[in-house]
Design goal:
The complex is a heterodimer of chains A (112) and B (118).
Chain A lengths: L3 E4 L2 E5 L4 E7 L4 E9 L5 E8 L4 E4 L2 E6 L4 E6 L8 E9 L5 E3 L3 E6 L1
Parallel strand pairs in A: 2-11
Antiparallel strand pairs in A: 1-3, 3-8, 4-5, 4-9, 6-7, 7-8, 9-10, 9-11
Chain B lengths: L4 E3 L2 E4 L5 E6 L6 E7 L6 E7 L2 E4 L8 E4 L6 E5 L8 E8 L1 E2 L4 E2 L3 E2 L3 E5 L1
Parallel strand pairs in B: 2-13
Antiparallel strand pairs in B: 1-3, 3-8, 4-5, 4-9, 5-6, 7-8, 9-12, 9-13, 10-11
Classes of the chains: A mainly beta (112), B mainly beta (118).
Chain lengths: 112, 118
């Protein structure tokens, strides 16, 4: 059974700092990996999607990497801003399935 | 373009009462998902529809939960009777799956319905 783990569970940083969120998964037979953002009381917003054949994806200040063989992904946020404060969720789509398996998320607080 | 719409946004009921949640997916999306998210956890899939057909309901507690997607558009998720442990956020998502090409667009999530069972 696929399990997704995110470390740390919570992170507080001062504005302007670069930071890394970590995600690991137990079964490397994935179709893709996705990073989502969830604001309080709201649904999930997709940030980056990395196909299993890719190594990384970038969008603005965000960069996500994928090492499928080791079962790891990182989300790098450059020059963090208070507006980046949210919970970040990692999810893997299992091969041959439409099912997403989520981690518990990392709650990020960026202090002005 | 409107996103995924869910209603109600909040619901408080007493245990043993029935409750229903409604979801309107993004226009043209053929696949609809219901997830349950407990506090401090990631979402867990309850059921997935492709058009009108439920293709994955292995995680749906069928003794008290039911769902339908009439005409392959809107969907309703029902709990009867509700239990204390059902308190959670129920998320609906939709996507466009190109079955023949084996391609899937990303899933787009609604804001969720927060259920509190007293």
């Amino acid at each position: 059974k696929q399990e997704v783990t995110q470390i740390p569970a919570a992170l507080s940083v001062p504005e302007g700092e670069n930071l890394v969120l970590n995600c690991s998964f137990t079964d490397s037979a994935i179709y893709n990996l996705q990073w989502f953002r969830q604001d309080p009381g709201k649904g999930l917003t997709s940030l980056l999607l990395i196909q299993s054949s890719q190594r990384e994806q970038t969008s603005g200040r965000l960069n996500a990497s994928l090492d499928k063989s080791s079962g790891r992904s990182t989300l790098y946020i450059a020059a963090s801003q208070p507006g980046d404060s949210a919970t970040y969720l990692c999810a893997v789509r299992e091969g041959g399935s439409e099912k997403l398996v989520f981690g518990k998320g990392t709650k990020l607080t960026v202090n002005p | 373009e409107a996103g995924v719409v869910q209603s109600p946004r909040y619901k408080i009921i007493e245990k043993k009462q029935p409750v229903a949640f409604w979801c309107n997916p993004i226009s043209g999306h053929n696949t609809l998902y219901w997830y349950r998210q407990n506090l401090g956890q990631g979402p867990e899939l309850l059921i997935r529809y492709e058009n009108e057909e439920a293709v994955d309901d292995s995680q749906l507690p069928k003794d008290r939960f039911s769902a339908e997607r009439l005409k392959g558009v809107d969907s309703t998720l029902k709990i009867q009777p509700a239990e204390l442990g059902d308190s959670a956020v129920y998320l609906c998502a939709s996507s466009l799956v190109y079955r023949r090409e084996g391609l899937t667009d990303t899933q787009y999530f609604g804001p969720g319905t927060r259920l509190t069972v007293l």
